[in-house]
């Protein structure tokens, strides 16, 4: 069973420099005005900062191979494992809404992540161990973000 933790990040202020140029937030622009891609970039920036604050080293962002893309690749310095992180971001009206962005990580996406991990192993051998985590970011008005981190959300074995 994956471990879960839930935290709130109080403000998006300061995340602008973590985003790419085309996804930058202007002070006068509301989150509702962001495209899906821009919102995803905000979520990835929040997830990266969240993981860094918890002792992870971010090794790569948007790792690409012919199988697809992993949002974040990090080193869990406590457990000594490489972590492929799928970040799912959603807009919500209130942080208490029953929105679960992580539900979008379906069997197809898990299979794709396993293939991406196999490519990463070939590219970066030797790798001590690999784990698959999901970070769900719910962004509400007022620049608040709710975060759920599913540690070991799935493994190498396909689900029945």
From TrEMBL:
Superkingdom, natural source: Bacteria
CDD domains: PoNe_Nuclease
InterPro entries linked: Restrct_endonuc-II-like (IPR011335), tRNA_endonuc-like_dom_sf (IPR011856), UPF0102_YraN-like (IPR003509)
Single Gene Ontology MF annotation: nucleic acid binding
Pfam families tied to this protein: UPF0102 (PF02021)
Family, per entry: Belongs to the UPF0102 family.
HAMAP family: UPF0102
Protein's recorded name: UPF0102 protein DXC81_10020
Organism listed in the record: Collinsella tanakaei
């Amino acid at each position: 069973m994956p471990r879960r933790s839930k935290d709130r990040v109080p403000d998006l202020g300061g995340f602008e420099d973590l985003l790419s140029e085309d996804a930058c937030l202007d002070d006068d622009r509301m989150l509702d005005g962001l495209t899906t891609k821009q919102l995803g970039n905000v979520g990835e920036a929040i997830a990266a900062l969240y993981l860094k604050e918890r002792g992870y080293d971010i090794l790569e962002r948007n790792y690409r191979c012919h199988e697809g893309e992993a949002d974040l690749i990090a080193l869990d310095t406590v457990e000594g494992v490489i972590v492929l992180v799928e970040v799912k971001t959603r807009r919500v009206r209130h942080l208490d809404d029953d929105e679960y962005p992580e539900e979008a990580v379906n069997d197809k996406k898990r299979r794709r992540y396993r293939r991406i991990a196999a490519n990463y192993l070939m590219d970066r051998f030797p790798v001590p161990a690999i784990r698959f985590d999901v970070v769900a970011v719910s962004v509400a008005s007022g620049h608040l973000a709710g975060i759920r981190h599913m540690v070991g959300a799935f493994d190498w074995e396909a689900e029945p």
